[in-house]
């Protein structure tokens, strides 16, 4: 447990601009049940002065990393039970830094419903898929003739089974899926269209009736508006990538092909290129589109929260009584009463700490110091 806290603290500290020991101290306080506001206000000496923003970021990241670790252990246990956990695979799982990366690695080992690829393997078509990958000069239809059985009616059925096997293999390649996801995040566009017949009822979303912009650049307010329009069944949203690319093989399909050295003019290469395209259109495109939609919502909500927080901070920091010299008192028994004075413009002009309470009981000294500050800075208000 201690080693986990130390590891997580080091990760979070680098992200919030703190030292690992500060993050570790804050984690221990939160684990004991302390809240972020409590730690920010009353445990500064323990955390080394972490502010509420740093602590809130720490708490959110802590929850994410612990969920990630719990999922990692579940995945390791599942693969171990299957007898498929190698040292290399375990290292790869332990190195995964995000939930998406972890799930990409787990996908080939994840228990699933009986798939077309599994049925094809049961019918003995696994060797056909391997043969086509290995011998690009051979004509796939000719290779398929050797696999016709009672369950596999003809060469076409055999090739469809081989396609299902290879397509599943391509779609479960974690490194490839990660590269495709990064490519989509860089190149994708978000397109909004009005649902037929909803023009009048959804007039408030008219700005997005025919709207397109790069996915990575959509600001939070527009993303949330379009998502709300979709929820109200006024808008349809799509993720498009390389929609204007007129080449017969889309870049994403080419990335799949390149991962398996597919690209020559041999019969096997031509057939495998079709499988790569089919895999992209039928499997990976939809899967990654859903990922990007989820990421868009999470990003937009996070940005919106930060905007609201900044606006609220400005509102709370506005002078409620106008521009008047003010003294602020932050009561503290053990650590003393903190005192700050600002002038009429809000500029900080003085700070001190006084100790009127036990164990010091310096009431007279406190009165004298506060009176001196009031006279010196012409304080009109005390808060």
Question: Could you name the key traits of this structure?
Answer:
alpha+beta, 3-stranded antiparallel beta sheet, 383 residues, Tex N-terminal region-like, elongated, Nucleotidyltransferase, domain 5, 58% helix, 16 helices, Arc Repressor Mutant, subunit A
Structural class: alpha+beta
Which regions are unreliable across 5 or more consecutive residues at pLDDT < 50? none
Query: Helical region count?
Result: 16
| First-to-last CA distance | 44 Å
> The CATH topology of the largest domain, please?
Tex N-terminal region-like
- For the secondary structure, the number of strands is 7
CATH top-level class of the largest domain: Mainly Alpha
Q: Estimate what percentage of residues fall within beta strands.
A: 5-15%
CATH homologous superfamily annotation of the largest domain: Tex N-terminal region-like
Q: Describe the biggest sheet? A: 4 strands, mixed
Query: SSE order, as H and E?
Result: HHHHHHHHHHHHEEHEHHEEEHE
Mean pLDDT: 93
Gross geometry: elongated
Radius of gyration: 31 Å
Biggest sheet: strand arrangement: 6-5-4-7
Tell me which oligomeric state these chains represent. single chain
Helical content band:
55-70%
Domain tally: 3
Under the CATH scheme, the architecture of the largest domain is: Orthogonal Bundle
């Amino acid at each position: 447990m201690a080693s986990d806290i130390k590891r997580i603290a080091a990760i979070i500290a680098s992200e919030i601009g703190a030292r690992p020991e500060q993050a570790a101290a804050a984690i221990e306080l939160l684990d004991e049940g302390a809240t972020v506001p409590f730690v920010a206000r009353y445990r500064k000496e323990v955390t080394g002065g972490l502010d509420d923003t740093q602590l809130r970021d720490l708490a959110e990241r802590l929850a994410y990393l612990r969920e990630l670790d719990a999922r990692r252990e579940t995945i390791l246990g599942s693969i171990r039970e299957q007898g498929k956990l190698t040292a290399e695979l375990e290292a790869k799982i332990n190195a995964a830094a995000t939930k998406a990366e972890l799930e990409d690695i787990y996908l080939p080992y994840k228990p699933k419903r009986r798939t077309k690829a599994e049925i094809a393997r049961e019918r003995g078509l696994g060797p056909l898929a391997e043969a086509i990958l290995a011998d690009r000069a051979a004509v796939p239809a000719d290779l398929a003739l050797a696999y016709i059985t009672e369950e596999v009616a003809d060469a076409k059925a055999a090739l469809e089974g081989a396609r299902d096997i290879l397509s599943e293999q391509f779609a479960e390649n974690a490194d490839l899926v990660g590269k495709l996801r990064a490519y989509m995040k860089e190149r994708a566009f978000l397109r909004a269209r009005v649902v037929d017949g909803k023009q009048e009822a959804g007039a408030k979303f008219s700005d997005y009736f025919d709207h397109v912009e790069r996915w990575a650049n959509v600001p939070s307010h527009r993303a949330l508006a379009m998502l709300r329009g979709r929820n109200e069944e006024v808008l349809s949203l799509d993720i498009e990538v390389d929609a204007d690319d007129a080449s017969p093989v889309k870049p994403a399909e080419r990335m799949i092909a390149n991962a398996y050295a597919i690209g020559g003019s041999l019969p096997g290469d031509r057939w495998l290129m079709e499988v790569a395209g089919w895999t992209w259109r039928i499997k990976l495109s939809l899967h990654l589109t859903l990922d990007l939609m989820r990421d868009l919502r999470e990003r937009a909500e996070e940005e919106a929260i930060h905007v609201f927080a900044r606006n609220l901070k400005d509102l709370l920091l506005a002078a409620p009584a106008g521009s008047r010299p003010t003294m602020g008192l932050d009561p503290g028994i053990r650590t003393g009463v903190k005192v700050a004075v600002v002038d009429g413009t809000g500029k900080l002009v003085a700070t001190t700490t006084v100790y009127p309470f036990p164990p010091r009981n310096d009431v007279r000294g406190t009165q004298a110091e506060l009176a001196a500050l009031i006279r010196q800075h012409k304080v009109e208000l005390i808060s």
